[in-house]
């Protein structure tokens, strides 16, 4: 079994964090510190996860970053 890349580990960590807490509000640097990753890897992972439809990322000048889990409810 191949080992996961740091980028994949960061994506998994973000998914787990958002699954538990629903959203993250703070700076990119703070999120990078929480994940023990570089801001570059965090930004790339957020972009990938947003493309996949897992989260909605917003960056507001002076207010930091807001990432929220996209609510994907299955139709009944």
Task: Provide structural commentary.
By secondary structure, the chain is α+β, with helices and mostly antiparallel strands. It has three helices and three strands. It has helices at 6-21, 28-35, 39-51; strands spanning 23-26, 55-60, 64-69. The protein has a three-stranded antiparallel beta sheet with strand order 1-3-2, covered by helices on one side. A hairpin with a 3-residue loop joins strand 2 (55-60) and strand 3. The longest helix is centred in the first third of the chain and has 16 residues, at 6-21. It is globular.
Order of helices and strands: HEHHEE
- Percent helix, as a range, is 40-55%
Spatial strand order of the main sheet: 1-3-2
Helix count, DSSP H or I runs of 4 or more residues: 3
**Unreliable residue stretches:** 72-76
**How much is the average pLDDT?**
82
Secondary structure layout:
Elements: H1 6-21, E1 23-26, H2 28-35, H3 39-51, E2 55-60, E3 64-69
Antiparallel strand pairs: 1-3, 2-3
Helix pairs in contact: 1-3, 2-3
Protein traits:
single chain; 76 residues; alpha+beta; 3-stranded antiparallel beta sheet; 3 helices; disordered C terminus
Q: Would you kindly provide a brief summary of this structure?
A:
49% of the residues lie in helices and 21% in strands. The protein is α+β, with helices and mostly antiparallel strands and 76 residues long.
């Amino acid at each position: 079994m191949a080992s996961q890349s740091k980028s994949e580990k960061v994506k998994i960590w973000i998914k787990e964090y958002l699954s538990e807490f629903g959203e993250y509000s703070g700076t990119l640097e703070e999120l990078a510190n929480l994940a023990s990753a570089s801001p570059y890897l965090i930004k790339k992972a957020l972009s990938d996860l947003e493309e996949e439809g897992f989260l909605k990322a917003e960056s507001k000048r002076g207010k930091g970053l807001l990432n929220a889990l996209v609510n994907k409810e299955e139709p009944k």
